[in-house]
Amino acid sequence: MINTFDELLSHAGHKIEAVYYGTENQAVSTAIECVTCGMVLIDLSPGQTVGVDDNDGKTIAHVWSVVDVMDRAKERHINLSDQQCLEILARVDDGKDASIGINWDVLDSHTDDYLALMSG
Ligand SMILES: [Zn+2]
User: Closest Cα to residue 109, out of 86, 83, 91, 87?
Assistant: First the structure.
């Protein structure tokens, strides 16, 4: 199993295959494998979720993406590039406050701060 950016990056350009174990109608497990290395990259059983299964289902996680930043900005008539959204997302991650969390207002605030910074 891979868990990190560097681990996944090491398979860039390799032959990757999605497979299942069991029967087609009743798969007991499904995996993404690197054929080049002969290694399972991601392996899931029914009910499992990528990234939150290491705590026996005792964890929750909300994922915020570049698309969230971009769509939210568009609603406010601000057009951002993928790169700009990525930089804003990094700022949101760096500045996260557990008592506030990440929400639309936080994205707006970071977007405004970023744009103010960029415009000098
Ligand atoms: Zn590989």
Answer: 91
